[in-house]
Write a structure and sequence with these properties.
The chain has 737 residues and is α+β, with helices and mostly antiparallel strands. Helix content is 49%, strand content 16%. Strands 1, 2, 3, 4, 5 and 6 form a 6-stranded mixed sheet that branches. A 5-stranded mixed sheet has the order 12-16-14-15-13, covered by helices on one side. The structure holds manganese (II) ion. The site of manganese (II) ion (MN) has 4 residues, from loops.
């Protein structure tokens, strides 16, 4: 019986040197070539299955070109270099990729390793092929650039090239597969680094594109090179256990194969073996023993059509008892990478757990070759849906790129997206969205639409109001409440799980900070001009133009933003605009204070040390890149900062501010039962909310630290008065440090 998977369980090798000659996961035709012409013959034979004669000739001419270009170069293994591009092209031929992709695969290293340029490739093999080769070529490392920075730039380039043409990543994955297969020749430290990178980046991409066997093969090879000892121990243990398993597998297989036709279902049934990496991962992540992992028996049933999947499920549940909560319908709700199947778990003979996957032939093709099924099974409409979801994902990468600040941020967003989508939730209109495990209503809101995310203020999950940080569960119905002037909260970044939500929140905050800083800068400049006895309007246009030219600033707005961010000093600019000499001591007039409302947004920050509230005497401080920070006059941190280069601004509270501010107080009380309840009651009575409370026992006394919400100083005084009346209270103080 031919297995559905490549034979994933290797025979236990005594040492890794022998492994090189006995790669466990790879079909024979992937061995490093010994005889060039023999390899070429085999390659052409594969092409002849699906390409026209003239196309084969074109591919062969690319082979000769590449062979010529790489002449004299050897791989670390000692083989002629051309053996590598040929092996890469062969993998692509297995997926029936077109001439352009095959040509690009054969040429994929010439730009990096030989003198041939992109233009030469374009002239000879066409522009598209040249773009494909460019997409897989690394960028030259810049001077002063660390290895990590250069690597991050390369990933970004590759991911964006892939978003434009998915064939780029197919070439890159085939390239990585061959490199992983020939890794034994490489230095051990480099070997581990490449294996780690494969596990972190390439295997998840293969998985995201539905290339499941390739993903598993890359994981298995990475595992072998990262932890050679653990790999050997597991391989040995699996081999030893196989004898015992065979009998059980045979018995279950027979029972299923007998039952299905009885129910009128035509099916193909196969036993599945786990690969070593997945056994290792289950043992590590779920703290299971080897036998707990291995004693689960896997089977796959392939039927002709979708209704038969559900019929087969019914037949199986009649044969063995299903384990509750283990059934998953990935047919009705496919995984993000297009994967479809029914999954169930049963209690088999002797009480052994049995896992079964049920799918149709089409679903099986997608499960095995993902996006590559576009080339492998050209005429089939079953793959339209898959093409669409893949296209959407690739587009979202481009969106992420435009919303990301730099390469590191972009990569972080992408990594968030690479892990398999696992939670399925519903919109109020019944549309299904798939989100990564751990996703929150904020992720959901951004998945529906960027505007919904940006305006989101609250949510209902299954008709109940719930906090925005709630982790969503399968089947939740999520409704987002929006408000027209709401904006994302920086604290959301702590719990969102999708790349899109993270990128959009950061993007929004950055844009808003610029706007708010510009508004603040304008006010600060007006104030500085007033101190010199001028209104803003009295500055001549020509003075502004001269100023912009002198300072290389692009616009007035940019200047104001810089003032608001604390990058330029308003007083210096005011003097410059009025053409005053800096050395002459200007006669300053009292320009009045800046008015603070506490709703200025990110440009005006209330200091977290002293937490000023309306009614407190306050002072503003402008520090580089931070904008305006408001402290109380008696803030202890302020005294420490006075020596540093800062600009001080007179500020005062606007009258009648109507919002809550947070303050901290410390209450020293006798350590008796029920004192916290009394304090809490006193606070509530005075009309305040408790945001947080922390207690420190000290034997006879106890210190209680409260974070409260109050509108102003008067209200706070009222609360403290209330609390002093409680007999157990010894001392109360506001905390400003
Ligand atoms: Mn290569």
């Amino acid at each position: 019986m031919a297995s559905v998977f490549p034979a994933v369980i290797p025979t236990a090798p005594p040492c890794s040197a022998e492994l090189a000659d006995e790669p466990p996961l790879i079909p024979d035709d992937m061995h490093p070539p010994v005889d060039k012409s023999e390899d070429m013959d085999r390659f052409c034979l594969k092409l002849s299955v699906y390409l026209k004669k003239e196309d084969i000739e074109r591919v062969c001419s690319a082979y000769r070109f590449s062979d010529e270009a790489h002449r004299g170069q050897l791989r670390i293994s000692g083989h002629p270099y051309i053996s590598h591009p040929l092996a890469v092209a062969e993998t692509l031929a297995d997926w029936h990729l077109d001439t352009q992709a095959l040509t690009a695969a054969l040429l994929h290293d010439v730009m990096e390793d030989t003198a041939i340029t992109k233009d030469e490739i374009a002239a000879r093999f066409g522009k598209t092929t040249a773009e494909l080769v460019d997409g897989v070529s690394k960028i030259d490392r810049l001077e002063n650039q660390s290895y990590e920075e250069a690597q991050a730039e390369n990933y970004r380039k590759m991911l964006l090239a892939m978003a434009r043409d998915v064939r780029v990543i197919l070439i890159k994955l085939a390239d990585r597969l061959h490199n992983m297969n020939t890794l034994d020749a490489v230095r051990p430290d480099k070997r581990r680094r490449i294996a780690r990178e494969t596990l972190d980046i390439y295997a998840p991409i293969a998985n995201r594109l539905g290339l499941n066997p390739l993903c598993r093969e890359l994981q298995e090879l990475s595992f072998r090179h990262m932890y050679p000892l653990r790999y050997q121990v597991l391989a040995k243990a699996v081999k030893a256990a196989r004898g015992n398993r065979r009998e059980v597998v045979g018995k279950i297989l027979q029972a299923i194969e007998k039952r299905l036709p009885e129910c009128g279902i035509e099916a193909e049934v196969k036993g599945r073996e786990k690969n070593l990496y997945s056994i290792y991962r289950k043992m590590r992540d779920k703290h299971l023993t080897f036998s707990q992992v291995l004693d689960i028996y896997g089977f796959r049933i392939i039927v002709n059509d979708t209704p038969s999947c559900y019929l087969a499920l019914g037949a199986l549940h009649g044969l063995y008892k299903p384990i509750p909560g283990k059934f998953k319908d990935y047919i009705a709700i496919p995984k993000g990478n297009g994967y479809q199947s029914l999954h169930t778990a049963l209690i088999g003979p002797y009480g052994t757990p049995v896992e079964v996957q049920i799918r149709t032939t089409d679903m099986h093709h997608i499960a095995q070759s993902g996006v590559a099924s576009h080339w492998l099974y050209k005429d089939d409409h079953a793959f339209d849906q898959l093409q669409q979801t893949t296209h959407r994902w690739l587009q979202s990468l481009i969106e992420l790129q435009s919303a990301s600040h730099d390469t590191a941020e972009f990569l972080e967003h992408v990594k968030f997206d690479l892990f398999p989508t696992e939670v399925y939730v519903f919109t109020p209109r019944g549309r299904i969205l798939s989100l990564p495990r751990g996703a929150t209503p904020v992720d959901f809101a951004y998945a529906v639409h960027t505007d919904i995310g940006n305006r989101c203020v609250a949510c209902h999950i299954n008709f109940e109001p719930m906090p925005l940080r709630t982790e969503l569960r399968n089947g939740d119905r999520v409704e987002i409440v929006t408000a027209p002037h709401a904006g994302p909260n920086p604290s959301w970044l702590a719990y969102v799980r999708t790349g899109k939500a993270r990128a959009q929140i950061r993007h929004f905050l950055k844009t808003r900070q610029t706007e708010e800083s510009a508004a603040l800068g304008e006010r600060l400049l007006a104030r500085a001009l007033a101190e010199l006895g001028h209104a803003t309007g009295s500055v001549e246009n020509s003075a502004w133009e001269k100023f912009l030219a002198d300072t290389n600033a692009r616009s007035r707005r940019e200047v104001c933003t810089d003032i608001g961010l604390g990058l330029r000093l308003a007083s210096v600019i005011a003097r410059h605009l009025l053409a005053r000499d800096d050395s002459a001591q200007p006669e300053l007039r009292k320009a009045g204070s800046m008015i603070i409302r506490g709703t200025e947004g990110v440009a005006v920050k209330l200091a977290t040390c002293c937490q000023p509230i309306p009614g407190d005497p306050i002072i503003g401080m402008i520090r580089k890149g931070q904008g305006l920070v408001v402290h109380t006059h008696d803030c202890p941190t302020l005294a420490k900062l006075s020596g540093t280069k800062t600009e001080w601004i007179d500020v005062e509270w606007a009258p009648g501010i109507d919002r809550m501010f947070e303050v901290r107080i410390r209450v020293l009380a006798q350590n008796v039962r029920g004192v916290l309840a009394k304090l809490a009651a006193g606070i509530a009575e005075a009309g305040s909310n408790i945001v947080d409370v922390r207690m420190e026992d000290d034997g006879a006394t106890t210190s209680l630290y409260f974070v409260l919400q109050v509108t102003d100083r008067q209200r706070l005084a009222g609360i403290m008065r209330n609390l002093r009346r409680i007999p157990e209270v010894i001392r109360i103080a506001r905390i400003k440090e």
